[in-house]
């Protein structure tokens, strides 16, 4: 088969013809139950979850009250992407989301890549939410004096890594009681769990159980899922509005000064965490075939969901940072924390219940989205035909839903929360980038049938290149030190925690004796605490670290070890130059272009390890594509 066969495209006409045929004979047809209100509710169900109950705390601690600008920036980026999604959804109102859109815009190989990325996004996203739900649920049980063993409420990786870090810190003189709560829990889970040979059985059982319950609900039918989702949205919105109403009476405006205590860098530090709070609105587009009027309702549902959730996030952020000082909010449950601090424990209980409901609603939407991606790829012959099987009674993708339950439920037992959060973010952002790029690719093609919704056109021919030149000017004038440090790949000093956890016992003793020798009065034998006391003064900390009697490899990060972490940002910079040339030559539309740039920037902010894991996932997908999908593709069969 010729190489160009990799980029064979589906036409919108053929897609719509197949959908009409499915609906006329009832074969593989999904039930149509959703309206704008239902889609908006699904969007809120997906978005209002971990962001408002968890990550908003860390982001507020980093950025202060000015974190509201980060929510606005992220909402704007998601809004740009939503315009692109809405335009495609209006053109191609079928299940499949970005996968189907890419099949039309770029061709089969790119469609496969984005479909494979979406499988990871929804699976890993639900693993993430299931783990968070488990944390909230077990916390709620503790308030009712029901204490589960640590080894059945924590994942294997967290327990294993936490045990190693806790052991290293205690070896350095830190007492168990002075370890963070997370490390204490990990150490306890690892040392009290059943051991089979050399294998420690640590598994997050509640996370798997909630996946089983949600999968059963999604399997049962869209109408039941819709009703359950709407009910959960009503409950959690009611409780969030109660939190805002009660919290407003305890706002002290002096806490809003300084408004941006850590400057722009502090605000942007939480960009990945805040973006994760918005993940989910794109799942609405997977339900296109189940909408009564998809060309009208899908764009409206997406936009209303983003607008409502952004307003809620901003108001909640202002209330939280007004009730207590921003630097106290770096906790896993910020809403419950602020009310406990103000001795309003009855509100903390209400918030705990709300969090459990909110997480369950997010699980519902994500667990509903993934089977529809599998189904769409199966319809095209890229996955086995079983995945496109629709239940004759429930009108849901039955086989794909069951497989999704296993794909999410089993890893939720063992995977680490931080790893899956970032993997979900990079998969989602990659989908957003390709959808925005797809709108740009199709914008000047006359033979493409257009839907009722079209992104407003603003010519980026001069705006984007000029904006890029202004940014370069700013980087080399007002931010020249950081810019030159980035370009020159200057050696960086490691943090106290990184240094101490890399030491063996002999090295720990040497470092301790060295630090004790610097000052006559030392009140602790905790090596990390002794080293951390110098961090407030960068110059002094660098001087202290330089004198430590250990290898420079432990003290510093330099050369390729440092440069590899900058690779994502270099990819972003090089892509910006290419986009500036493309926009000048082709008169690109500004809104989808800004969506592409915003999402690519957030990808660049993620660790290089996430890029590597994501690349490995894509390579595995390509092996499946060339081994099965390329040969069995419906487009290939039609050609033959």
TrEMBL record:
User: Where are the membrane-spanning stretches?
Assistant: 39-60, 66-86, 199-219, 231-251, 263-281, 302-326, 346-366, 396-414, 420-442, 462-479, 567-583, 588-604, 610-628
Write down a Pfam family by its short name. AA_permease_2
Q: How does it sit in the membrane?
A: Multi-pass membrane protein
Q: Which InterPro entries match?
A: AA/rel_permease1, CAT_C
Q: What's in the keyword line of the UniProt record?
A: Membrane, Transmembrane, Transmembrane helix, Transport
Subcellular location(s): the record lists:
Membrane
Highest taxon in the source lineage: Bacteria
Domain (Cationic amino acid transporter C-terminal): residue spans on this chain: 590-633
Its name, as the record gives it, is Amino acid permease
Biological source species: Flavobacterium keumense
């Amino acid at each position: 088969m010729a190489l160009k066969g990799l980029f064979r495209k589906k036409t919108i006409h053929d897609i719509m013809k197949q959908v009409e045929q499915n609906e006329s004979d009832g074969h593989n047809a999904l039930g149509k139950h959703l309206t704008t209100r239902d889609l908006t509710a699904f969007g809120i169900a997906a978005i209002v979850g971990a962001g408002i109950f968890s990550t908003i705390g860390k982001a507020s601690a980093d950025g202060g009250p000015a974190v509201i600008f980060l929510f606005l920036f992220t909402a704007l980026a998601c809004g740009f992407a939503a315009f692109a999604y809405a335009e495609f959804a209006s053109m191609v109102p079928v299940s499949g989301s970005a996968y189907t859109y890419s099949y039309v815009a770029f061709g089969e190989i790119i469609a496969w890549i984005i479909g494979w990325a979406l499988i990871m996004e929804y699976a890993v996203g639900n693993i993430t939410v299931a783990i968070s739900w488990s944390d909230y649920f077990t916390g709620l049980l503790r308030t009712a004096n029901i204490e589960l063993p640590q080894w059945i409420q924590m994942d294997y990786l967290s327990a294993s890594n936490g045990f190693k870090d806790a052991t290293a810190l205690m070896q350095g003189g830190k007492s168990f009681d002075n370890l963070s709560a997370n490390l204490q829990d990990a150490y306890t889970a690892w040392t009290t769990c059943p051991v089979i040979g050399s294998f420690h059985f640590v598994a997050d059982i509640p996370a798997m159980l909630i996946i089983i319950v949600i999968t059963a609900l999604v399997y049962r039918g869209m109408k039941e899922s819709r009703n359950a989702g709407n009910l959960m949205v009503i409950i959690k919105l009611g409780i969030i509005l109660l939190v805002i109403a009660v919290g407003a009476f305890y706002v002290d405006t002096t806490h809003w000064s300084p408004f941006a205590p850590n400057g722009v860098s502090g605000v942007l530090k939480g960009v990945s965490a805040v973006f994760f709070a918005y993940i989910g609105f794109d799942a609405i587009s997977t339900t296109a075939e189940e909408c009564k009027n998809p060309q009208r309702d899908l764009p409206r549902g997406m936009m209303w969901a983003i607008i409502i959730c952004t307003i809620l996030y901003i108001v909640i952020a202002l209330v939280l940072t007004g009730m207590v000082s921003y630097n106290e909010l770096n906790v896993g449950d910020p809403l419950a924390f602020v009310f406990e601090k103000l001795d309003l424990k009855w509100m903390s209980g209400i918030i705990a219940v709300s969090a459990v409901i909110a997480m369950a609603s997010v699980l519902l939407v994500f667990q509903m989205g993934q089977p529809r991606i599998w189904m769409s790829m199966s319809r095209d012959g890229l996955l086995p035909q079983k995945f496109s099987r629709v239940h004759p009674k429930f009108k849901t993708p039955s086989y794909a839903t069951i497989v999704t339950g296993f794909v999410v439920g089993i890893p939720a037992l063992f995977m680490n929360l931080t790893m899956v959060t970032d993997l979900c973010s990079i998969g989602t952002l990659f989908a957003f980038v390709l959808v925005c790029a797809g709108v740009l690719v199709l914008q000047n093609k006359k033979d493409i049938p257009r839907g009722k919704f079209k992104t407003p056109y603003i010519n980026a021919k001069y705006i984007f290149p000029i904006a890029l030149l202004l940014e370069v000017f700013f980087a080399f004038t007002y931010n020249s030190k950081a810019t030159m440090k980035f370009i020159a790949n200057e050696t960086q000093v490691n943090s106290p925690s990184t240094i101490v956890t890399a030491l063996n016992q002999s090295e720990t003793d040497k470092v301790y004796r060295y630090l004790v020798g610097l000052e006559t009065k030392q009140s602790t034998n905790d090596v990390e605490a002794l080293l951390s006391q110098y961090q407030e003064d960068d110059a002094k900390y660098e001087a202290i670290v330089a004198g430590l009697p250990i290898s420079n490899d432990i003290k510093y990060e330099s050369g390729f070890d440092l440069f590899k972490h900058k690779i994502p940002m270099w990819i972003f910079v090089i892509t910006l130059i290419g986009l500036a040339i493309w926009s000048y030559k082709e008169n690109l539309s500004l809104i989808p272009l800004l969506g592409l740039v915003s999402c690519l920037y957030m990808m660049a902010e993620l660790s290089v390890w996430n890029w590597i894991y994501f690349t490995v996932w894509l390579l595995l997908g390509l092996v499946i594509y060339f081994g099965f999908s390329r040969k069995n593709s419906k487009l290939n069969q039609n050609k033959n």
